[in-house]
What we know:
Elements: E1 2-3, H1 6-26, E2 33-39, H2 43-59, E3 62-68, H3 74-85, E4 92-95, H4 105-111, H5 123-130, H6 139-150, E5 159-163, H7 170-178, E6 185-189, H8 196-200, E7 205-208, E8 226-229, E9 233-236, E10 244-247, H9 252-255, E11 261-262, H10 270-287
Parallel strand pairs: 1-11, 2-3, 2-4, 5-6, 5-7, 7-8, 8-11
Antiparallel strand pairs: 9-10
Helix pairs in contact: 1-10, 2-10, 6-7, 6-10
Amino acid sequence: xxxxxxxxxxxxxxxxxxxxxxxxxxxxxxxxxxxxxxxxxxxxxxxxxxxxxxxxxxxxxxxxxxxxxxxxxxxxxxxxxxxxxxxxxxxxxxxxxxxxxxxxxxxxxxxxxxxxxxxxxxxxxxxxxxxxxxxxxxxxxxxxxxxxxxxxxxxxxxxxxxxxxxxxxxxxxxxxxxxxxxxxxxxxxxxxxxxxxxxxxxxxxxxxxxxxxxxxxxxxxxxxxxxxxxxxxxxxxxxxxxxxxxxxxxxxxxxxxxxxxxxxxxxxxxxxxxxxxxxxxxxxxxxx
Length: 288
Ligand code: GUN
């Protein structure tokens, strides 16, 4: 069994991006600029945005965080988006989710200029991605593909079972892996799938993205399968100083010995997602 080290891959890709940025700057070109809009005081969102800011610094991007109060109205947020759409100094921007309840997230996503939508959430980017056209692909699916590529894991003709049909992970990753170049035969499972354990056990590649801690057990895994764990759940653990530990959707200790490759949680898919955002921002800069 080989552990897929997301931190190592993320560090390698971060160095590649930093080199490209340094070359751009040496040619006298403007530094890529990413803006994050953060509405309200959600603790997890503040942490994520902090990580994104730090990573921007590491690769040499300019980064700006617009912190707006929780009471910001939808119309004011739409005005801010309109301003960023038209700001030539901004290559890409994201609106950190979730938004306060009084704001319609879909309306906000659809207001972002697709050419600056480095989260890849706008329906135009999703549609282009599904059609195999150049598009900004969202962070988690792209991160998974980068891990498979880095470890040169064969995908052509393999049966990939995706557990979970969310718009941000299951659906896009299932679609991407079915496309030319990846060439998987894909099955997407969900809460209504009959005989789920038997279906998962036919997977050469299993992507667990259902959001249920330690759902995938060893009996569901074909010997030699590749297991990608997208889940991340806090479970109480009095032995930890924080009072919790992070677990994935896969029961790691019993599944790992059966796999050819497996991603740990934390340290697998997680560290890749910010890199995908950086890759998209660099591309947005290059396309302008
Ligand atoms: N909230 C959790 N993950 C994400 C993400 O990738 N992008 C945005 N905009 N919000 C998030």
